[in-house]
UniProtKB/TrEMBL annotation:
Protein's UniProt name: Reverse transcriptase
Lineage: Eukaryota, Viridiplantae, Streptophyta, Embryophyta, Tracheophyta
Any coiled-coil regions, as ranges: none
InterPro entries assigned to the protein according to its UniProt record, in alphabetical order: DNA/RNA_pol_sf (IPR043502), Rev_trsase/Diguanyl_cyclase (IPR043128), Viral_Replic_Matur_Polypro (IPR051320)
């Protein structure tokens, strides 16, 4: 995401949420054939100006926790999504390079949550 000349990483966005008790999530789309919603972010950008519209069925407001990019964000911090943990545990034993790469791709995203990930996956 780029904002006023700055590139924000996922880590930057998560850092901004530190200490928050309530979360909202808006699914924005660049489609014009759905009802239009206009709003302002804390940076002052207008969604209508950028032709972004919210999909009401995927929007949540005032929640104690939200799922974002496979992580659960709450007042306690950022944690792995339990559904993703279950997918990793149930992943079939790779028998060739392609499924091994798939598994490492899934687990690699969560490496910050897995102590010693580099040593575990060092083949």
């Amino acid at each position: 995401m780029e904002l006023r000349g700055y590139v924000l990483t996922t880590e930057d966005l998560l850092d901004e949420l530190a200490g928050a008790k309530f979360y909202s999530k808006i699914d924005l789309r660049p489609e014009e054939d759905i009802p239009k919603t206009a709003s302002r972010t804390h940076h002052g950008q207008e969604l209508r100006k950028h032709r972004l519209f919210a999909k009401k069925s995927k929007c949540f407001f005032g929640q104690r926790q939200v799922e974002y990019l496979g992580q659960i964000i709450s007042y306690e911090g950022v944690a792995m999504n339990p559904a993703k943990i279950e997918a990793m545990v149930k992943w079939p034993l790779p028998n060739s390079l392609k499924p091994l790469r798939g598994f490492l791709g899934l687990t690699g995203y969560y490496r910050k949550f897995i102590r010693g990930y580099g040593e575990i996956t060092n083949l």
